[in-house]
Amino acid sequence: MSTEAGARRNEQRFLDPATLARLGSLELKARTVVEGFLSGLHRSPFKGFSVEFAEYRQYLPGDDLSTIDWKVYARSDRYYVKKFEEETNLDCHLLLDVSASMGYASNGISKLRYGSMLAACLAYLMNRQRDAVALTTFDDAITAMLPASARPGHLRSILVTLDSLALGSRTDVSKPLHLLADGIRKRGLVVLISDLLDEPERVVDGLRHFRFRGSDVIVFHLLDPAELTFPFERAARFRDIELGDELMAVPSVVRQQYLDALNQAVDRYRQDLGSAGIDYQLIDTSIPLDFALMSYLSTRGRTR
Amino acid sequence: MFGISFLSPLFLIGAVAAAVPIAIHLFYRRAEPVIEFAAMRYLRQAPVEQARRRRLRELLLLALRVAALMLLAWAFARPYVSSFAAAFDGAATIVLIDTSASMSGPGQFERARERAAAAVRDTPSADAVAVMSFALTANPIAPLSQDRGGAIAAIAQLQPGSGATRYRAALQRAAQELGGRRGRIVVVTDLQQSGWDAADSGVPQNVSVVVEEIEGPAANVAVTAVRPDGDGAVAVVQNYSSSAVTEQVVFALDGRRLDAMAVTLSPGGNAEARVTTGALESGVLSASIDDRDGFRADNVRYAVLDAASAVSVVVLTASGRPSESLYVQRALATIDGAGGFRFKAVSASAFASLDAAAFADTDVIAVLGTRGLDQQGRQRLAEFVRSGRGVLLTAGPDVEPAVIRQALTGVVTTSWRERNGGQLSFAPDDARHPVFRLFGGTGALGNVTFTRAALIEPSQSANVIARYTDGTPALVEERESGSRVLVFGSDLNHRWNDFPLQPAFLPFVHEAVRYLASPHDGRGEYVVGELAGPTGLTPGAVAIGSSGRRVAINIDTREADPRRMTLDAFQSGISHLHTRAEQQAAAEARQQEDQQSLWRYGLLLMVFSLAAEGLLGRRLG
To answer: What ipTM was predicted for this assembly?
Structure first.
């Protein structure tokens, strides 16, 4: 009992009911590049294996003619469209960066914790839609991997894994990406949650590998508000969380150059990933998680 | 070995100010926060410094600031490179044994040897030890080493000599032997009072002086003078004891007994023993007593009888009349014959015609008048000076300065001019000068009254050895080509002063003439140690110079005085030596520092440091 209660508490920690309710009212509109498309939620790239009848609706101009139930028409001489609770067998791969830099927190919540919650939300949503969800954590190598599964119990495994994450070492996004891309045999959705503190070329190159393998890719670029604004005032020695080396800097002097360098990197990610057909979303970890998800999903909905 | 010393080391305290930038550095270093940051890759693209490199620069800045402050303190402390003897690790003991004549009392030196040997044995085993004997000078007899046996054996060989005691010279030599080591000097001596004299150096501060006092005889009788006198000989015997004594004075010539005479001496008094032996022309005259209770070394005194050894003096006067040189003649006539003076008065006009033999035999010319000195006479006078002999110029009424100037052009550049003066007296400017050695300071000279005196204008090379009470030169010495010229700023014939009537006149004339004649070695008597070489260390008669002229060697009469100083007085004298040594060291240090002026380089380096600090600081922001 106690174990179940603990697990439930952990689920609650990652999945705030209010956030979940709001997310639940949205349709996850994933864009599929190759075959998948789902109207309302999303459409499977294949015809679903388990098709569940939902309702009949009177035909409206513009509806697909193939959805007209001709038997009903024969009986009633009216055109009805047969609506199904469509399911896909989409494999969603959540890739979470657990490198040491993800442990940075200026406002109480680290990027890793924020990323974990985001991954949990997404996993929950995927699982609710009966999509198979896989979770992979990595730093400069893959540190944990849960294979894709749509089983209800799988969500718990993912959540437990997310709850017990430990910070890794240096960031090397591209290497695990290439490894994972080679290992994915079925086209699906790849969600990368990382602070992308790596060489942009290598990161983009790794993500293109997924695109090459036919998967859709979404990138959540997590940055702490202090990383986005560099709010420091006094001269200080800045110690690299991952490498341990130090830089002496007077913030008022270096702030603009820092922000320019950051914005340049963000713009480059946005541009290069956009050109590669990869969705890119910059997430400020001070923004509530639900707003971040909604913002993203709205963006996905608009762009679709 | 060389080392940096400081003239004003207290300024080095200012180097503490170097702690200020260090403290500031440490304070700001502590206050500078360390922020863990993840997006360092973007920060690195900003123009920031590596903390390590910045820390290095900060340390460099700190070093420059500290260096500037320390250089400032260093420069103000006025550094100089001093040479010093190697400061050895180990301590050392120098045992000084007094071998002067005053150590020749009965059983006295045996006790001295025992105490010296004991001092060697008592030296700490880790210390090196050396033994030196001393009288007028100090001589090592056992070099500085750990060899106690050798040192004690050397002590056993020592015998008392005839030299006078000179503590300062001995202490100085011992300190020199220590060569910068810390240690002690053990002085085995009778603490004779006359052993202290003026000297210019002392013992270092890290050297202690221990005195092993050897009791001397309470009484002593000494022969203090012997000379031929008319058709006999006379000896002076001094009683240094507090009771009356009678001594038999034995006279001998060349070791052959002439006669003997008993003298009775009152406590502390003296007496003359006079014997008639007929005229004594040549040989070694001695007078001896048999004082077994006192010092043995002063029981005999020698005089060499040699008419040729008398100093030949020619006096130039205006007319050659005896009255023009009466007082000088009388003064010189008090000692004639061997060791005395031969006097000849010549008019200035006749000086040129003085026969060559008489001219060659002359040791000193005293110029009391120049009237009638023709050109040939002037040339002869200049030739006399150039030949290395002595001239006494008196600036009296019969001596024309213009004539002297013309005669001695290029030889003697000191001149004088007449002046009207009031009552003046004079005093030695240099009491150690041989002319005034007998006076022991101003003494009787202060009683001389001058009604007129010339204003002497000494040349740059001249040496003023006496001055009038108004500060103007009274007696000036000028040396030229080995000769000695004395210029006396008044006359010597009782016309401008009462000098000839004063008791000081006779010794003054004697000493002045002897001094002027001394390059010719006219002296017939020396005290022990005065002549270089071993022959001068033993009382008696010795032959000196290429001519083989015989002179008498006697002990210093001061050495016959058995009065002793107290141990406290001796130690206070050592303290005085310390002070003098410090003063001398300070003076030398000032001179060295002044010559080297290292502070300039210190300030220059400080300016460079500050300039570098400014440049580096600007780059650091």
So the answer is: 0.72
